[in-house]
Specification:
alpha+beta; 7-stranded mixed beta sheet; 26 strands
Amino acid sequence: MKLTKLQNIIFPAHKRFIPYTRMFYYGEGMEQSADKEYWGIAEYHAVDFAAYFNSFSVKKWMKYTKIDNVKICLTMKGSFKVRISGYYMNRGPFQEEVLSEQSFDLDEKKELILDIPQVSDQVTIVGFQIVGYKNCCLYSGYYATEIPEEEKREVRLALATTTFKKEDFILPNIQLLKDEILNSEDEMAENFYVHVIDNGRTLNKEELECDHLWIHPNPNTGGSGGFSRGIIEANLQEKPATHVLLMDDDVIILPESLKRTYRLLTLLKEEYKEHFISGAMLYYERMNEQHEDIGYVHDDGSYGPLKHRLDMQRLDAVVRNEEAWPKRKNQYAGWWYCCIPTTTARLDNLPLPLFVRGDDVEYSLRNHAKFITMNSICVWHMGFTLKFNAAMELYQVHRNSLAIQAASGICQNIDFAERMRKFTRVELLRFNYNSAELLMDAVDDYLKGPAFFEKPDGERILKEKGAKNEKFEPLSKFKSIPVDLDAVYGDGPRGRMEKLIYRLTFNGLFCPDFLLKKEPVVIAYDWFYAPHRQYLRKKLLAVNPHMQTGAIRTLDKKRGKALLKRYRKTFKEIEQRQKNIRKKYQDKRAYMTSYEFWKKYLGI
């Protein structure tokens, strides 16, 4: 029976991965030959491939797919020993279970096919270690299985990526997809398609297009518009896709992740064929750290990862990442890498027109999605901490949270309006008047009903709201104000009298000026609330310690009182109108997710 490849053994060949070799293997004494034909392992050095990219997630492969056997295929030469081990978590530390050991002495290059013995149910991942004795050379390797061809599923995988003037990312990624998949001899090549949705209309179709790769000029309708176009094109291509893989443009991709996704899809059991494959986001800035592979909407209305941050250079993190994690309400897959079967991603089941933020959350929850995640199926994406944008986080996210809850009936356990009310109050108390406006703008625009979202005005609106973002400057501009970056996220205790005065005066808004302290004090620029620090101050210095920048906020009694009046009116209105406005969204949801709507909206 012909072997079916499951995943290749890969090496840190690109210079960007050199600082992160422990994501590929552990150990010293392995170097690539001058002609790049093989990797040599020094005498009496051990190299362990039970790492993030080269271990095999045996528990998940056995659970989700039809395979019942796994082999390690290594093309090697020289004298060496191969040890195969299984790993699992055991009340904290991980445990290693040696499965087999074999020694070899090969005068010529030869492919070895090593059976992985049947593992116990507790084993989570499998890896192998090579101990070099003499002239040890590793040319290539892969994990494989024996399975009848008729057992495989027919898969046509369409990658849909939405880009807006991000040529520095999208052009190298397009070339990589051509070199590593489309123009390769990999069996995936004939069943792989790429749809680049060009929201900026800056890409050259004639130069970039080839067989199975298309550039689609699109109006700038944000991520939801771009991904909707991608789903449409995947369904309408000459041989309709069976799966569409939604991927951000500003990412670093690893073609092997795509290959593993494809092979996984071809072998899925019947009961898992409708699952979404949710790829992990690792940080672009720190390539070894995993931010999220599945997210969920917290009970307080915030969004965040299911798992805590993991360092994928550590073997314990590699094992722990593949263990079963407790499920949460309202889980979703981020669209930096999300593979969806087209039985779900249909022309009558498209995303909501939200421009950006929340479309992936709504789509997962509306479709009651279930997820498969796996080590090494991932992309690297710029971390969100360095991308904080008040117009995005305060206006866009909260406006869309209200809309998706109303339209699709999701997250009914969460009071987004109450979350926004509290945040607006906090922003007023710390003189962040533009941010308070953004939150109230979000409520006002939501209350305009679904007709507001049916107009393709997302780009204009985001620019308009972006003008309200705080203007941060280097901390060197504020030399007269002492700044301890390590203490930005901290606050002292408050006494009863301080609390009472803070509330009665609305932190100085209704207070004589002579009672206010003139010296500015440092507070965090983002979500962290420090009422003791900012108590009865005329000025605050909001600091971003990650970027070492700051912005002065000044108590403005006239503006503060006007916004406080608007605050009371705005949240009273949403309370009074919420029931009726939700019904309007519910009534329009089917239309706003239809091909008929999107064809008009995108001008197709």
